[in-house]
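Working notes for the structural subgroup meeting. M.R. asked for a predicted model of this chain before we commit to crystallization trials. I am recording the input and output together here so anyone reviewing the notebook later can reproduce the run.

Input as submitted:
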Amino acid sequence: MSQPDWNLWPARPWVKAWEAVALSLDIEPRSLEQDPLSLMADTGGGPFFLKQGFPDRKIKDEFDERLRLLIAHSRNPDFSGFDKVNLAEFSAWSLSSHWTVPPEIAALAKHADDEAGPEH
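Returned structure, recorded in C-alpha cell form:
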C-alpha cells in the first residue's frame, strides 16, 4: 500500500467509484491488485481486491463497507464500483456520511455543489 499521489488525483474530476473509496482511506488506488478469481466469477458488484494491498484487515473491511455504501446510495440501480463518480461530489458526500477522510479529500469537498449524493 502506498500513499495517493495528491498532485495527480485532484486533477482528475472523474474517477472510478472504487478509486474514490480508496482515496477516502488515503490509499493509492494504483497500489491495489484486483483478485484474479473475482475476474473469472460473475459475482456482481465489485471490484474485489487482494488483502495484501491494504495495511491490515480492518482497513480492507472499511474499504469494502464504504464501497457497498456508495453503491447502495446510488440513484442508478445498475451502478457498480467500476462506474465513475465526480471526485469533488464524492468527497462532499463522504463528509456528509461522517467518514473520516484525509485532508485532501476534505479540501476537494469544498469545490462541490450541494447535492444529495455522488453523481452517477
